[in-house]
């Protein structure tokens, strides 16, 4: 097939993502300006940074090979982290259910809804490390602070997800039970709980995995678990032990993620 | 001229899906391929542009042996073969123009492709073809905003943008309603004659095949058992091709003497 | 799940039983509950909690909150600027991480990776990045580059790569193959197939995931300062160490405000992208 095509004189350009040219260019300039401004106003200590590469080499030399001499400390730290994760997941789940119901717009009256959602927002807004610091100040160092922290952490996630699930349920089932004469609690039991159960179980397993990871770090501020062990290692420049701990953390997280993923897949 | 000789396609150790197929398609003809599901129509088409790898045999297009090509040579050869798909296979989020220009990707330098700065000649060609099929006003619309028939037209234009030496259409109307279906078939027929293009169309609707194509090839169990003009497609011939055999009882065609007679014809 | 008996005859029908679970299922449920109970009992009995402290806890927390009230506006300017600095850390770091994550996601996805080695490499990078918490990365970078915002930015970048890369990689593996087939039939090279077939399909996910990660990073960057990696964490640590609880309260409120605004922006943008 030969190509003697009539010249139409028409051009074509891809329609830009943002149609309005002023908005488009304005946005682009704003982004570039922001990046420039942010980078220049951030306080970089260039001298100290230049020391970085030789320091990095020194650290990596010191970190290899990872040392497991203090293996017992490692093991104890991990056991504590696991225990913190288990208890706080359970406690968090138990508390999340009523809070979730209080935060579901289709179930809770307006005033309760506001309180419930408020609790969730506060629980979510703070990084678990901050919450850990506060609890450490309140109840002292150790796993108790860790459990309280991760319970709050769990509530922030599980209650929110559960509340969303409750808001999405098939209302017809609730009406059916109500029509049959069911009182509030019975209605919840027969019409709502079965609908949210699968999500609840999936969330529980996900949160257990999440808490296991988080328990590794709340220890860094003194809330127990392997995090404290890691912080001490860094503080004593025990980089080989620190590497051993980190590798174990990675390993445990991977295993936990694999198991949790496998279980959740089989649920569906 | 497309020349297929002794084409065999076998998946693993199983029975061959295509069995020693021979077919010749001279330039400028519209050939339809009919047959029941599983007869091998789609596999045949896809062997031609190597979307499916033939197990053995030869496929020659205008003097080039297609089965031996690899890498860049294969890509260059694929430019010469246009394909229209049952599911349209468009890039939903891109505009119609980009979809149509993607037919030129075998010819465009990478930087033009990435920046969408298409050469004026290609733009002219695109508008020309789009006007011919009636979708020029959709140039800036996203492909997924079009109806089925319109999308297939985009697919046709994309294939033609390649300036191909042959056009393959794999059940191009299976996803369309009857009226749009006929429009597309009429379009293919008209374009074939306007552009002097050989066209090979897989069809499941035999009436459309009879009405819009000049030559019908009937396949069954990986073999061609009918090859003739629409008028020759008698009810007997139809039975041979479609004989309503339920899936569980789909036996080996070779054990049927009746079919062997037909194949010998 | 339902265990019914199928009797015949009027007497048998009158005595039909129904139970929700089969015997096997019931044992499984009891077993699971027992397992969970066991885990909890083991944890609680062996954990290193000083129980008197637990009973004391509500009173201690109440005391702490009382001391935080009312929040003090002292040094609000420094708090404000540092908050801004925190936002910048999160934003700049997310910005760079987003660009770096795309090539890594491409080599970590089975359908776009050049060879087995790159697939393994991509997945390895993503897994390492995801499994090491931002704070731990921060500890490392503070040790290398010293305390300051660079350590914080790098920590966020390194952690975000895994998050972004994994989700992007999954999106890449789940694309519709039909357009890819069409592009192959046209004779397009791998690069062009990538640009026309893969990228347009993953664009919405790309933006949504990036915005989501920015939101998460906003939260993460508030604590980087606690290990010395810049941002408002430094001031927070300072206030806590000097028992300036009312200032602590202000900082906490500022953080809540920041996170809420960030979430609102992020939710809005994600809606626009889909």
Automatic annotation (TrEMBL), chain A:
Keywords: Cell membrane, Membrane, Transmembrane, Transmembrane helix, Transport
Residue ranges of the TM segments: 21-39, 84-108, 129-156, 176-193, 214-235, 241-259
Every ABC transmembrane type-1 domain range: 78-260
One Pfam family named in its UniProt record: BPD_transp_1
Domain of life of the organism encoding this protein: Bacteria
GO cellular component, one term: plasma membrane
Protein name: Phosphonate ABC transporter permease
UniProtKB/TrEMBL annotation, chain B:
Domain (ABC transporter) ranges: 2-246
Molecular-function annotations in GO: ABC-type phosphonate transporter activity; ATP binding; ATP hydrolysis activity
CDD domains: ABC_PhnC_transporter
Entry-linked Pfam families: ABC_tran
GO cellular component, one term: membrane
Entry keyword set: ATP-binding, Cell membrane, Membrane, Nucleotide-binding, Translocase, Transport
InterPro entries: AAA+_ATPase, ABC_transporter-like_ATP-bd, ABC_transporter-like_CS, ABC_transpr_PhnC, MetN_ABC_transporter-like, P-loop_NTPase
Stored NCBIfam families: ABC_phnC
Protein name: Phosphonate ABC transporter ATP-binding protein
Organism: Thalassospira tepidiphila MCCC 1A03514
